[in-house]
Amino acid sequence: MRHDTLVDAIGNTPAVRLRVDAPEDVEVYAKLELLNPYAMKDRVARRVILEARRTGELREGAPIVESSSGTMALGVALVGTYLGHPVHIVTDPRIDPVTLAKLEAMGCSVHVVEAMTAQGWQSARLERLTDLMRDLPGAWWPQQYSNPQNPAAYRTLADELLADLGTVDVLVGSVGSGGSLCGTSAALLEHLPDLKVVGVDCVGSVLFGQPDIATRRQSGLGNSLHPDNIDHRLFDEIHWLSDDEAFDATRSLAREQKIFAGNTSGSVYRVLTHLASRAAPGTRIVGIMPDRGDRYTDTVYRHRPEGPIATAPAEVPFGTTVHTWSRAAIPRRDRPVLLFVESNTTGTGMLALRTATRLGLAPVLLTKDPARYPGLAETGCPAVLCDTEDEAALRAAADSAAAGRTVAGVTTTSDFYLTHTAALARALGRPGHATGTAELCRDKSLTRAALHAAGVPQPAHVVVDGADAVAAAVARVGLPCVVKPADGSGSQDVRWCADAASARAQAAHILAATENVRGQARAGRALVEEYVDAPEYSVEMFCADGEAVCVGVTRRTATALPHFVETGHLFPAGLPGTAEAALAECARQALKAIGFELGPAHIEIRLTPQGPVVIEINGRLAGGMIPELVRAATGVDLLDQQLRAVTGRPLALTADRARHAGLRFVTAPHPGRLTGISGTAAAARVPGVASVVTTAVPGRAVRPPQDAYDRLGHVIAVGSTPQEVETALDTATALIRVETAPEP
To answer: Quick one: pLDDT at residue 2?
Structure first.
């Protein structure tokens, strides 16, 4: 076949029938992507670079910067340098000498990071890449893990399979960035709706619910991060192989099929042969073989196993931690349903839906108003419209959403729906809080009564149901005081009051409201509380099997008085051990007082010279992206653990790293109409910054924060010390400008 350029030679790889031990009429094919000029990722490099040039995102002659330790680096080098772009590859010490030699021979600049950071080698490479993007004017980053052109590039692979084979019953592929198997299977499913998709991962990769082992030796598959390009809804079955098993399989592929390939192909081969030996007559199975073996001559091909090699996979429930070859079935058409009763809007709600999908569940959002949730469509989670205030309507919607499938659990990420969730879980016989416990969390006046009965330290307080009672309440608790609704959330209508008149006015304001921001009836009560002038912390707790575990303590900063809106977090708080232990024990006693026994809790405490004082008990995961800080600092994914708890799965709350993470919220300096937020790209390039997110759209009315809904975005940074984190946050937030126009 004639090609005018080397770039045109990418693709059109052969599908070769393998000789395997299988029942009669079972056909097994290897799609030899390793016969691209360099490897399978040549397809991605061609697609993303040509598309970026077409749209003008990549200018003629501009530098290209990519993070890769393998075949994506080679593909970008091939296409990028061929088209006249300087190419910079950021990699790590695991890069093999052959790949390094090829990159340098093609004229690339190769940058090797020296040590892992917060989330393994990937995060270390991304931090170095950020520096290069800052230092190279006009540089462009293909972003293979999130660029939608990555999976789109594999539509040509699917077309080739259809043209060559006509039909495919089972498709097997390795999973790293998610592009190849997800892109190919999504395109094939348009024509072959009964196709079975089998993913191959490695032990110690987080992609399918396993704990991260940064020292794993396989390359080309597995990950320490969750790439956006993986669509977990496409998979029917997952296999995990250890390093020893993958390397042994790779040598078997060469010996038995004469295909000298890398460990990704070897892993696929091991799963292919297993599936073939058990397939029904007439089944056609295809495995995608990504790259050649020349990179692995001194590693994979000379490796000697350190332990036994499994001859068949262990059958495990999805979510079980594995150490050797194992498989879990997650049929995409019959996954257990996880019901979400509404969601929060300013924290991790949409991320929770994605996490549920990663856990092999089918998340469904029961909601009165899907439009309330920006980003819902991107999660792929279906929304079922119902009156979430009506218990009967909620139950009917749950039954409709399940459509005969197993309901694995019921949960929420919103304070406003704790009691609704508890009632629905009870009705469906799923794990959940007692309704009384949920009510104690939801109504702060009830919380105060329970803490008082248990002798847990808290501010002096009086519950009022009329403004006329405020003067007596102030006389009892003293001035200054804090006035807040009994059933509020997100610091809304919480106010510091210096005198009795302002306390009365605030109470009157609270009591005049008959509905909250969700349209729910208000409790008709306010709390007048002693103002505890002491540093504020939140204790992140997790309860299971009768034990309340302290995951860590977060240091919180807030706006200047009279409001109490959080402006930033630091996790862990960096307290002396005795102080942290005192906070943790106070949180345990608070949870015991309200009968809290399942899942995450976020307890706000002020630490006075006399000891901890409980301000609030939030019977759900912390908002404000604190779970993301916990994950970056410790490796513990609290969202993942919450969903495991409500579906009765084993938990993993032990930290696997000791880092520090912090967050600053983006807020408006003065009232007006938002016209834009600038400086975010520069802020994202600050060393140590992990993410910069804006959530507000131009045209919105903004103001200096008076409640959590006034926040416009956030910056997250990760480092080895609290000082590193604070410096990164200070530098990044100084670069961000919230631009407003005066109100008409």
So the answer is: 67
Q: Angle at CA 567, nearest 5°, toward 563 and 569? A: 130
**Residue 403 DSSP label:** T
Task: Report pLDDT digits (tens) over 412-452.
Answer: 999 899 999 999 999 999 999 999 999 999 999 999 999 99
Around Cβ 167, how many Cβ atoms within 10 Å?
12
Q: At what angle do helices 42-55 and 71-82 cross, to 10 degrees?
A: 40
Element (H, E) at 337: strand 337-341
Q: Are 382 and 364 in contact (CB under 8 A)?
A: yes
Confidence at 278, pLDDT banded by 50, 70, 90: very high
CB 701 within 8 A of CB 743: yes
Peptide bond into 480 cis (omega under 30): yes
Cβ contacts of 610 within 8 Å, gap of 6 or more? none
Half-sphere exposure of 500 (CA within 13 A, CB side): 12
- Give the relative orientation of helices 179-189 and 155-165 as an angle to the nearest 10 degrees: 50
DSSP 571-622: ES----HHHHHHHHHHHHHHHHHHT--SEEEEEEEEEETTEEEEEEEESS--
What percent of the chain lies above the pLDDT cut of 90?
78
Contact 553, 542 (CB under 8 A): no
CA proximity to 621, closest of 434, 346, 320: 346
Q: What angle do CA 730, 733, 734 make, to 5 degrees?
A: 80
Instruction: Return the higher-pLDDT residue of 114 and 668.
Output: 668
Q: How far is residue 313 from each of residues 175, 197, 201, 640, measured CA to CA in Å?
A: 18, 17, 13, 25
Instruction: Give residue-wise pLDDT tens across range 550-593.
Output: 999 999 999 999 999 999 999 999 999 999 999 999 999 999 99
* pTM attached to this predicted model: 0.83
Give me the sign of the Cα torsion angle 249, 178, 31, 197.
positive
Radius of gyration of the chain (CA): 28
Q: Do 534 and 587 form a contact (C-beta atoms < 8 A)?
A: no
Check: CB of residue 244 under 8 Å from CB of residue 255: no
Kindly report, residue by residue over 500-542, the tens digit of the pLDDT: 999 999 999 999 999 988 889 999 999 999 999 999 999 999 9
* 3-state SS class at 540: strand
Tokens of 188: 């094939």
Dist CA 225 CA 620 (whole Å): 25
Helix segments in 654-736, DSSP class H? 680-684, 722-735
Q: Which of 158, 152, 219, 145 is nearest to 189 (CA)?
A: 158
Could you tell me what percentage of the chain is helix, strand and coil, using 3-state DSSP and rounding each to the nearest 5?
35, 25, 40
The backbone torsions φ and ψ at residue 353, rounded to the nearest 5 degrees and listed phi first, read: -65, -40
In angstroms, the CA 668 to CA 559 distance is 12
Task: Please report the DSSP string for 150-194 in residue order.
Answer: HHHTTHHHHHHHHHHHS--SEEEEE-SSSHHHHHHHHHHHTT-TT
**DSSP per position, 81-144:** HHTT--EEEEE-TT--HHHHHHHHHTT-EEEE--S-BTTHHHHHHHHHHHHHHHHSTT-B---T
Task: Determine the pLDDT at residue 120.
Answer: 66
Residue 719 amino acid letter: G
| C-alpha to C-alpha distances, 647 to 315, 339, 360, 362, nearest whole angstrom | 20, 10, 11, 12
Residue 669's identity, in one-letter code, is: P
Q: Are 708 and 349 in contact (CB under 8 A)?
A: no
Are 46 and 10 contacting, i.e. CB atoms less than 8 angstroms apart?
yes
Torsion angles phi and psi, residue 150, rounded to 5: -65, -65
